[in-house]
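Sequence only, no structure available. Ideas?
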Amino acid sequence: MRGRKLPYLITIVLLILLTFGFSQEMLPVGEPPVKPYISSTQKVEKPLYLAIFWHQHQPFYYDSSKNMMLLPWVRMHAIKDYYDMASILQNYPQVKANFNLVPSLLYQLELYLKHGVKDKYLVLTEKSADELTDEDKDFILRRFFDTNWDRIIKRFPRYWELLQKRGASATDDVILKAIKSFTVQDFRDLQVWFNLAWFDPDFQENDPDLARLIEKGKDFTEEDKKIVIAKQYYIMSQIVSIHEKLQRKKQIEVTTTPFFHPILPLLVDSKSARIAIEDIPLPKATISYPEDALAQLKMAVNYYRANFKQDPKGLWPSEGSVSKDIIPYVAQAGIKWMASDEEVLSKSLGVPIVRDSKGNVLNPEVLYQPYYVEKDGKKVAMVFRDKNLSDKVGFVYSGMKGENAAKDFMGYLERIYEKVKDKDEPYLVTVILDRENCWEWYEKDGKEFLHTLYKLLSDSPYIETVRLSDYLEKYPPKKTIENLHAGSWVDGTFSTWIGEDEENRAWDLLDTARKELVYATLKARQAVSPVLNPDKLMNNFHKAWFELYAAEGSDWFWWYGDDQDSGNDLGFDQLFRQHLTNVYNLIGKEPPPALSLPIVKIGEEKPVQALQAKFTPKIDGKVDPEDEWKNSAIYEAKKGVGLFAQPAEYIEKLYMGMDNDSLYFLVESKKDLKEFLGKPYYLAIYFSHPTWDMINVYPRNSNESLGYPISYEVILDLSKVSEFGVVDAVVNQAQGNNKWKEVDKVKAGISSKYIEIGVPFKVLGLKGRERVSLNVVFGKEKPEDVVPYYIPISVTVPEAKLEVVYFSIDDPVGDDYGWGGIVYPTAPVFKPGVFDITHVEMGKSKDQIVFKVKIRGDLENSWGSPTGLSVQTIDIYINDGKGGPLYYKALPGRNADIPEGWNKAIWAEGWYPSFVEPVIDEKGKLTLKDTKGIVQVTTEPTEKTIIISVPEKVLGTPNPDWKILIILCGQEGYPRPGSWRVREVEEMASQWRFGGGDDYYGDPNIIDMIVPPGQRQEDILSGWVSSENEEENVYVKLPLIPLRDLLNQ
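Reply:
I predicted one. Tokens follow.
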């Protein structure tokens, strides 16, 4: 009988798999018991209404060409954030909240649960630890510590132990050593801990299996891994249902977003970006796809209906991005209300949101009420978030004890209540923020803060939480905004998604693909801009439109340009281009070569020996690399990248040198070059150019890009060389479509083992401070060796010698300690001396005023900034004595006063160097205007010198009446709110923070400075008082130095 039942059981299993698709083992997860807290507090007759609005979103990581997720963050945030943030409210039935679940996020959960899609992290987790290859181990060692080290990894001794065993950095040397030192058990424990540590603490503490594994701590088994993954899948499967359940109970409202999270105003009309920034550069193409905007909205509504069994009423427009032009499409999709940021409201009304020194709003009647917005007879309600309170939750409260943070939140609301309690109107405060991005910075995922906050809200007689649709139904707007500002919750503009070269190029590639798709769709008599069901893509045209809609998402454009850095920009770029490539493939068209070319800058190869000094070798074919080329940068020749690269076939090493006029290359051959003479071999050097528009995508006779657009080729054709000595190499300029035009010749020298070539910068059309990418290729009819291997060398053309030197002064060595007690952050990137100014020179080169700042430490571009400057920020303040508005503080975040005042400032940093001026705005308020694109920053690592240039027509001509101040701070990519990107000095040094200061914000974040003759830096930067109460802070007072005291020193 047993033998007869087995086929029947197999049939049943197969039927289940065919019916429901992918089958993944799931194990229910234990949660804390629900203990409803019911407060007996009665609300006052006219409470202050509060709408808490949690936005849940992840980029669309799915790559259909590989059936794989690029990154694991949908899965990881699902187990840490998406479920528990809703479920915690079951304990506080009197608290109501609003959630935004982006459709493409829910669809990615569906891909995991129903279609068997995985991410590489998951694949390598499931792989048995004793079967891991060295490549697998390399990935695991680099990526399985991707979480907050202090808040998460340190909580678990074994996880922390494994991090210490690997090392704090992830250089190739460190990883190679760890591959050898980690045991199979170490790798298995790391596989488990990466996945286990990401669970929300409620699951870690209340699920018996997870709690047992945490207590066990180490020596995990393969079965332990299976338990962890099965629990993850179960949590992912419950996310929609917990939200649907609480919405049915009318405790929460779930809102939607356009399906793939596009910036709707830019889809409707890219020129809307110029409403906020008049001169913002736009793509060459006119972006105007209102049909796509409507399709993205309708797809979102349909997908919402399928998941939540009702239609959505509320919309979070992606990134709070709105414009008057999107209103008809939002209304047509059936949406009743949407939300944005207070800055959009302020610019719409032409009325500032006025705050006191503590951030309290002084005109609450402006911000704390809903409005209607209207166009073409279509009307939608709108609410606007309190940016200050939202950012406190997002960025500030993580540094406080949870209970104190919750009390501060309530205190803020109670102060609003006191201001409006006698008014007749029902005031509404709206708090909106990314839910998943802040909690890992809180202790235990913010649980103390949330439980305390929800309890205090339950008990408060003055504050009543609401679902926004309920509030708007009871208290519909009384005012209408006539001209809704086109902007987002990021500075009230769209500059994060359009305007930079990379962003605009991406839009142009998208537009070209869309034009091809529209043409093919119409030719096939299919619908343009169809409203699609992602589970029922009926034909290749539907699939192609789905890929295009995915490419319209905001996240690609968020990471393009220099204004944001994901740490994996190339991965996002590849996925964006893959979506567009898929469009072409699905309609039977050949993808254009430009889609093979990265849009982002792909980084640069680091030499095994850095350039030691400038030098000028003689190009004569007579080479002694240990003498004439001893100061050169040296690059190894390999095939492949990383730890597992193999030696190149023909080239042994590449030496590179430079002087102020030329680049020099020495190629060391593995074989006697005599055997290549007169035969079809060649040596080519390929160069980019910052302005040359005509480019070739590929090197000669290749279909693989070097990662940048090629503008010039310098080629030595060995088939035309018959003997050693000095010969000509040809300089070709790209003409597009892989065609070349000869424009010049340069000298090359050949001996039995070496080829040397000198290439003047002027031959390549390059000027001082311009950056160029390059690679050396050796081939036989096609590329054989590429050095470096498909990663460029990046070179900055040296600044011409200063025509005029106004001053040249030394600064004490070793005073990179601020007031005397500051210590560096602990991360290895902050090497000794990188914040120590040793010399400053100011002069003039052509039409530029130039500052050269030399530091003691090595000048390394560790994070790949476009200027070559990664960890330092230099401020230069000037009072030119010509009057006009003066500003009496240093730039925000420096925490210093400048009593004499300044009217011009140069803010020099790696990503956003700016020229800053104090101006009087239209309301008569003194404010700061920072303008990008004026200040140029470059570096000369061999000289340990930072070069800062400003046009003389902007800065003015220096004269003895000028007064000047130069300070150096740490550059910070994730600054505290209000700080202009400088690294904080706190009481204790940590991985990313200086130590020796105070945890509040009264102490100066200044590490070094140029001081007036006869004064001491330690005295100037002492005497500060830092307090939790900002009004009690006493800031240091920085003196300006009369230029006459520095001239000719």
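Residues 222-248 form the longest helix (27 residues).
Hope that gets you unstuck.
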